[in-house]
Structures are given as structure tokens and as C-alpha cells.
């Protein structure tokens, strides 16, 4: 990502930030502190004004964007860390998993691992808080909650034992916000 800076005599400074492809975000900082934010489809197109901010508000927004108020936890996995030791993880059920073709109850998930399945995604259908009699199929995505040890035990019992040790684990590896299955 490249940032271009140029002086605007009598006005202030202009910064252009390359986004996806040729798209650019343009920020004009006036000598008065006012910021104007524009979007350009490419380097040669006219800019479309998105919004403007007075100096104080621009600094506050910048501080929030910089992460001064909240610093996300960078993880390689799609997981959500809750208070204490609680953790939520997503897994795709491999074809040869003990869980594939079984109900949650028959697989004895909670007794064997300590973790709980809190949702099952089958195709376009998501079942939150599934009943113990809910079936799980190969290719389904299960959302699991438990301590780190319990979630690791679930992974070892129902996911890793079926494949190469990492198969089925969801990874957010990109900026598109969508989970993808790691090969």
C-alpha cells in the first residue's frame, strides 16, 4: 500500500492512499485543521467527496482508527476469546470425522471433550443452540465453545484425528472477512 503526499500551497497537504486495484482514498488536511476525505476510482478519475471533519473530531477518529482505544487480538484462527479462559472456534467437519453422520448426543461431544457445540451450519442453514439430537454431517461447520483445553480436545478428537492434524480448521487469513478452509 503506497501513500502519496503533496503540498497544496495556501491550503495544506494532500495524502492519497492506494486501496484495492487503482482505487484511492484522498485526505486533504487544511492549514486550519479541517480534513476532507475523498474517494477516487483510479488515479486519473475525479474525486468523490465522502465527508469532512473539523480538526478535533478528525484527531479523535484517527486515534480510534489507530487502535489507541481498542487493540484487536491478532490470531491466525477464526476464534473469539471471551472472558477468562473461554474460547469460541469454528471447524469444518471432515468426511472421516467420528462426528460426521452422528448426532451431537451420540458422539458424546461434551463428555468426551468438555466442549459444547453452540451452532451447526449445514449449507445455507445455520442452527444456533442445536438440540443434542441434531445431526452433524461431513462438510458442516460447527461452532464450539469451551476452555482452550476443551476446544483443543474437541479438535484432536473430532477434527485432527480425521485428517492431517489441521484439516477443517477455519482460518481468516485475508482481509475479506470471510472464513476460508485451510487445506
From TrEMBL:
Gene3D superfamilies: Regulator of K+ conductance, C-terminal domain (3.30.70.1450)
Segments for region (Disordered): 160-183
GO biological process: potassium ion transport
Domain spans labelled RCK C-terminal: 76-160
InterPro entries: AAE_transporter, KhtT, KhtT-like_N, RCK_C, RCK_C_sf
Gene Ontology molecular functions: monoatomic cation transmembrane transporter activity
Entries under Pfam families matching the protein: KhtT_N, TrkA_C
Protein name: Potassium/proton antiporter regulatory subunit, CPA2 family
Amino acid at each position: 500500500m503506497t501513500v502519496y503526499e503533496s503540498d497544496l500551497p495556501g491550503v495544506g497537504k494532500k495524502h492519497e492512499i492506494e486501496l484495492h486495484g487503482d482505487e484511492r482514498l484522498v485526505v486533504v488536511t487544511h492549514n486550519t485543521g479541517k480534513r476532507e476525505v475523498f474517494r477516487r476510482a483510479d488515479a486519473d478519475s475525479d474525486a468523490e467527496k465522502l465527508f469532512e471533519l473539523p480538526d478535533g473530531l478528525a484527531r479523535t477518529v484517527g486515534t480510534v482508527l489507530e487502535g489507541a482505544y481498542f487493540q484487536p487480538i491478532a490470531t491466525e484462527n477464526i476464534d473469539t476469546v471471551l472472558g477468562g479462559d473461554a474460547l469460541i472456534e469454528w471447524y469444518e467437519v471432515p468426511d472421516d470425522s467420528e462426528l460426521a453422520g452422528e448426532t451431537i448426543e451420540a458422539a458424546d461431544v461434551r463428555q468426551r471433550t468438555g466442549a459444547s457445540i453452540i451452532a451447526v451450519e449445514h449449507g445455507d442453514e445455520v442452527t444456533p443452540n442445536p438440540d443434542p439430537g441434531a445431526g452433524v454431517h461431513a462438510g458442516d461447520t460447527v461452532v464450539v465453545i469451551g476452555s482452550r483445553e476443551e476446544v483443543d480436545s474437541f479438535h484432536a478428537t473430532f477434527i485432527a484425528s480425521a485428517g492431517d492434524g489441521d484439516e477443517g480448521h477455519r482460518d481468516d487469513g485475508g482481509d475479506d472477512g470471510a472464513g476460508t478452509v485451510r487445506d
